[in-house]
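User: Hey, quick favor. My workstation is busy. Could you predict this chain's structure for me?
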Amino acid sequence: MVIMVKKYALVTGTRPQIIKSVPLIKNVETLTEIEIVHIFTGQHYDSYLSDVFFKNLLMDSPDYELDVRSGSTDYHIRMILKKLIPILKKENYDGLLIPGDTNSALAGALAGMFLKIPVCHIEAGLRSFDLMMQEEINRRLIDHGSALLFTPTKMAIQNLEKESVLGTIMFTGDTMQELLISEKEAIIDRKIFESAAENLGIEKKDYLIMTLHRRETLNDSEKLNEIFLTIGETGITSIFPIHPHTRKIIEKSKIELPSSIRLIDPQSYHNFLNLVVNSKLVLTDSGGLQKEAYLLEVPCVTLRNKTEWLETVEEGANKIVGNNPELIAQAIEEMINKKIAAKYSIYGDGKASKRILKELSKTIPRIPTVREL
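Assistant: No problem, here it is.
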């Protein structure tokens, strides 16, 4: 009996997309009916943000690397399309797997639409309802051009139904939650923290973890300096794994950080989440870290005006404060000793990738046209 193998192209370009994809890549290795070709755009080109995750999470190197590097949104879209489309034309793909909402995700989805390759969106339906966020624009465009929409939460399904998307919607759960569950033992490894504690001079539950990298946060150097001063005034040690772009902005703006803020290089998946789980509080403008902090039962203060992870706010585990120094100070005081009891079921049962792969083994439904509705 001849097994018909379905071939999918997986497009990633950033650290969060790699993390979302790990369970799929690991589980597809046990299957004979599905093949995944991994195409990495290089949007996060720094080795701390890409290579370290391939090695740390036992993934093979990507099958293709586009090396687009840093740039504006229009640069990313233009260069990824230019390099990706010829690769996709080489073989007949049954579908295109697009995790998340980055510029790489949008460019990959557009390439699929242009070439009439069905787009399968992993983490579909998230909404911050803030079109000033590039990711909000990206995820809405991807969702409305996707044949299959794999949602991480029930709220995401409701968002897609309200928008009357044309593709097939299904609740699979969250692949980032799945990875966290499978790697939990390594994440909480006492030896990892003992090493970090010795190097950084910190003790368990006696420091903050912070990440800042969004353009909205970094564009105003005076406001950025105020944020750092506000965090410094707490007197609490803040461990700051710094994004390469953030480091450049700080150096260019000649911002002097308070002595309580300690810069370290970006960390591997396990080392970073080990620092998170042992911290008192997370300060971030990231998306996925809000959810990871919640799942690790660490309170979070988010330096954004809106979030796509509304469940964390509803559960009282996450405070949205924007870049207002006064609100940041109030939120730190309010949240720093808050006890969090995570409801893992919000993000599924930890088997998201298996559900996704099961659907990918079937024939992908054609997207109906407006005339057919």
